[in-house]
Specification:
Elements lengths: L2 E5 L3 H13 L4 E5 L3 H9 L5 E2 L10 E4 L3 H14 L5 E4 L5 H6 L9 E6 L20 E5 L6 H14 L2 E5 L1 H29 L3 H7 L2 H7 L6 H10 L1 H23 L3 H11 L2 H4 L5
Parallel strand pairs: 1-2, 1-4, 2-3, 4-5, 5-6, 7-8
Antiparallel strand pairs: 6-7
Length: 283
């Protein structure tokens, strides 16, 4: 896989490009973006070797799509139209059901591998790219059986070499689980930030009194709305279900407070401490 095209060279696409350049130094990374300024920045940062257009992917061995999921749904069929028979297209979107569905009957479905590397930060754009972002991280691969084995094998080897752990899942289950493990935490962070901004009108008070707990909890509220709004839209049903459960837990906690039942509050928090055992070594 020498001719690699990165459609989207922000945090995910740019970080993948950096790691690919480290593990496959003979590869040529071509950047594709709607904005030429983005590609110029990516070139200056050494994320890509050349600028390219969608028409150029007829020469691709591998195409990596790292753009908002609504744009992926619109663009993916066209990309598959252009990919050569020996080329593979992968996407890194945080939702999978709609993306898989849009190409389920495409003549080149065998040339597509749906995946979601569980990695990232609250930052965006080419300047957010970092080497080693995916080391030790899980890469969810969906509908692997629909991708030609001879095409998927070298790609999965590449992602393994970068440091990813592979896990296989169907796209519907992926979207249900990720609503709890990722999408809910982003909504919680955004709404915590909104609550504080609405209540604390003095920005200096927010700055001076924000401790590490608040900073870590609200960190995800710095994330890109352009990326996250389409994610919430595509996974609407699952997100609403998780929100209902979360709101029920918040309401229950409030009722315990109103009833001065701090013994029950202690028990709730003590039981929830088990999360540290589950996530030991991750956070």
């Amino acid at each position: 896989m020498k001719n690699i095209y990165a459609i989207g060279v922000g945090l995910i696409g740019g970080s993948l490009a950096l790691d690919i350049k480290t593990h496959r130094p003979d590869a040529v990374i071509h950047g594709v973006s709607r904005k030429d300024a983005t590609l110029t920045t990516a070139l200056e940062l050494g994320l890509i070797d050349q600028k390219a257009t969608l028409d150029d992917i007829e020469n691709a061995d591998l195409v990596i799509i790292s753009i908002p999921v609504d744009a992926t749904v619109k663009l993916l069929p066209t990309i598959l139209d252009k990919i050569p028979d020996a080329g593979l297209v992968v996407d890194a979107g945080s939702t999978k059901a709609d993306i898989c569905k849009v190409v389920e009957t495409h003549p080149k479905r065998r040339n597509f591998l749906a995946m979601h590397p569980i990695a990232g930060t609250e930052h965006s754009g080419p300047t957010a790219a970092v080497a080693g972002l995916f080391k030790g991280k899980t890469n969810i691969v969906c509908e692997v059986e629909k991708t030609a084995f001879k095409l998927q094998e070298p790609a999965l080897k590449l992602f393994t070499d970068i440091g990813m752990r592979m896990r296989y899942m169907n796209p519907v289950e992926h979207d249900r689980h990720i609503a709890y493990m990722s999408h809910l935490s982003h909504i919680s962070s955004f709404m915590l930030g909104k609550t504080v901004i609405d209540k604390e009108k003095n920005e200096r008070d927010i700055f001076d009194m924000a401790g590490s707990g608040f900073a870590s909890t609200v960190r995800l509220a710095k994330s890109s709305p352009e990326m996250w709004t389409p994610i919430f839209e595509q996974n609407k049903t699952n997100v609403i279900e998780t929100l209902e459960e979360y709101i029920n837990n918040l309401t229950h906690f409030k009722e315990l407070m109103k009833n001065d039942d701090f013994g029950a509050i202690y028990d709730e928090m003590k039981n929830t401490n088990h999360i540290k055992d589950i996530l030991n070594g991750i956070i």
